[in-house]
Write a structure and sequence with these properties.
This protein has 278 residues and is an alpha+beta fold. It is 28% helix and 23% strand. It folds into two domains: 170 residues, 60s Ribosomal Protein L30, Chain: A (2-Layer Sandwich); 101 residues, CofE-like domain (CofE-like fold, Alpha-Beta Complex).
Length: 278
């Protein structure tokens, strides 16, 4: 019988800048009566990583640029938030009322460059994604292995919408110590057909499994430990970027570029509203 277990760690305190997140996680396993063992996958919500890395911004400290004011006028967003999105983005892909889809500085296509208000203390405080989630994952893995003597894999996860589907799911945005795929290509199915394209993004599937015990609201469970995961293999070589479709394979790249050029590069400058407060 195949079996996989997912444990949500309860009792993590509110994370502050500079906290040793790895040490807190290891301590939490003891209070939750869970032992970290070789082969475990630890899934950590992006939000607590961002907090530990001091990636929380007070909106009142942001000065919007002229471009931010134009984007705010187009989308209805706060100009200060539009400025943060600009800073965190490589390029804008699509904008509409209340929606800004970008390719962010990490190469992730997402809404608002992953900037989020949920579970951040302070009315006008927003969390940014970690600057380098893979590096964050590597650091956490190294620290946890040093504290426990166990070989583990780390996934940093965040919740995203999906193209052509309603609702959100958890995705891996940083990883360390694991191969993100299970490759069926070249193997046979039940009837001897040799599969040619089946290439499972197991890192994302594990992130989704973890979210079922972590939640997204006030559950207060930002860390999960997965035991007995099938199809996962350890690897020191892979990064989150292996999951990202490159420009030459992106069938929609020309559509994104066309929209970006017409909406922002050639966009006529609008005056900043009179009396606007920076």
């Amino acid at each position: 019988m195949k079996k996989m277990s997912v444990f949500g760690l309860e009792g993590l305190p509110l994370i502050k800048p500079g906290d040793d997140l790895a040490d807190l996680i290891v301590s939490l396993t003891k209070s939750n009566d869970i032992e970290i063992k070789d082969g475990d996958i630890i899934v950590i919500a992006q939000k607590v990583v961002s907090k530990a890395e001091n990636r929380v911004v007070q909106l009142d400290e942001v000065n919007p640029s002229e471009k931010a004011w134009r984007i705010a006028a187009e989308t209805g967003k706060n100009p200060k938030l539009a400025e943060l999105i600009l800073r965190e983005s490589k390029r804008f892909l699509k904008t509409s009322q209340q929606t800004i889809i970008v390719e962010d500085q990490r190469g992730i296509v997402n809404i608002n460059a992953g900037i989020d208000k949920s579970n951040v203390k302070g009315i006008r405080c927003y969390a940014l994604l970690p600057k380098n989630p893979d590096e964050s994952a590597r650091h956490l893995r190294s620290r946890i292995m040093a504290l426990t003597g166990r070989r583990v894999g780390i996934i940093i996860s965040d919740t995203y919408s999906r193209a052509f589907r309603r609702g959100q799911v958890n995705f891996a945005i940083g990883l360390a110590g694991i191969a993100p795929f299970f490759d069926y290509r070249g193997s046979e199915d039940l009837f001897g057909y040799v599969m040619q394209v089946k290439f499972t993004a197991i890192a994302d599937e594990l992130a989704c499994a973890a979210e079922l015990v972590m939640g997204q609201g006030k559950e207060g469970v930002p860390v999960a430990i997965i035991k007995g995961s099938h199809g996962m293999s350890f690897s020191e070589e892979h990064t989150f970027k292996d999951l990202v479709i490159g420009e030459k394979d992106d069938l929609f790249r020309d559509v994104w570029r066309s929209h970006h050029d017409s909406k922002h590069i050639n966009h006529k400058t609008k005056d900043k509203p009179k009396g606007a407060n920076h």
